[in-house]
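We read letters as residues; the fold follows as tokens. Both lines appear below.
***
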Amino acid sequence: MSKQYVITEQKDHSNWWIILVASIIVAYGTYILYGAIAVVVCFIVYQLLKWDHSRKEAKRAEEAKAWMYDETKLITEGMPIWGCPEHYLDNYDDGMREWP
């Protein structure tokens, strides 16, 4: 007994999805373009808002830092102080600093 093999040739239809995607792009190309433009515009607006927020935070931090490290202002400005206000200054020496 001899074995016989049957070989059949068939067309390769593995690229059918490329034709499908191309037809969808051709049919809905303008809508895809509008959607892409909308996504890019939303991304740019989001980045601008994020940049503006960080700029405002940096400005607030700089103002707070300038207020906090100003040599002429008390650290507790705006708060009620008991006793001598000079005690709250950084460089006030009441003679007790070297006291053990």
